[in-house]
Design a protein that fits this description.
By secondary structure, the chain is an alpha/beta fold. The chain has one domain: Rossmann fold (3-Layer(aba) Sandwich). The chain contains seven helices and ten strands. It is globular.
């Protein structure tokens, strides 16, 4: 369970986010939609633990994201698979090394080599199976987003948080990403998907929530 409790964020003496109480079930999918400037990126940063709110807190399974020790905080962050608008890959490391970092951070162990898992279970679907040793600089923007996506889901999060979800479905990878998301949903992994308009790709989310002037409204 992810819970927002009385969160307020101010910038330049202006309140840009004000959410009293909202709960998200890890097994459900939520489409949070709102136009430019309504607070989507700020909300993502608060949920990801990047920006501490002026007041309030974010709870993950009843534990505080902003009032926890280092070890506790690290454990909580591992439960979320966060996809920012920009992929955030390490440029001087290979795609394999970028993904391996995420796997190691969670202490995950597979019954076969990690290279085989990445190649056969993920990269083949995106025709990237021969690119494990490539550097991010050699990829297109869409391919970088795919690698960022694989890095997040291979680490086994309990819940996903997508910024600019429609951008992740750009190019020729829309069907492949949706198939992965549906397979995760069948395993009980839901998420928050931030978009400008309500369900513009026809995903059929469990809940639709409008973000307007920094507050959440569920019809």
């Amino acid at each position: 369970m992810l819970e927002i409790k009385n969160v307020s964020v101010n910038r330049n003496s202006k309140e840009v986010l004000n959410i009293e109480n909202f709960k998200f079930d890890f097994s459900k999918s939520y489409n949070i939609y709102g136009g430019t400037g309504e607070g989507k990126t700020t909300l993502l940063e608060v949920l990801a633990g990047v920006e501490k709110p002026a007041s309030g807190d974010v709870l993950i399974d009843d534990l505080s994201l902003y009032d926890s020790g280092f070890m506790e905080l690290s454990f909580l962050r591992k439960k979320l698979g966060v996809m920012f608008d920009l992929p955030g890959l390490i440029s001087n490391q290979s795609l394999y090394e970028n993904i391996k970092l995420a796997v190691n951070s969670k202490g995950m162990i597979f019954d076969r080599s990690l290279r085989d898992v990445i190649s056969q279970e993920y990269f083949e679907s995106f025709k990237l199976e021969n690119s494990l040793d490539a550097r991010p600089g050699s990829l297109s923007v869409d391919q970088k987003r795919v690698v960022s996506f694989v890095r997040a889901i291979i680490a086994g999060p309990s819940f996903l948080v997508f910024d600019s979800f429609c951008d992740f479905l750009s190019g020729s990878f829309e069907k492949e990403i949706i198939l992965f998301l549906r397979s995760l949903k069948e395993k009980g992994v839901g998420g928050i998907f931030l978009t400008k308009k309500r369900d513009p790709v026809g995903m059929g989310f469990d809940h639709y929530i409008e973000l307007k002037r920094g507050s959440l409204y569920e019809p």
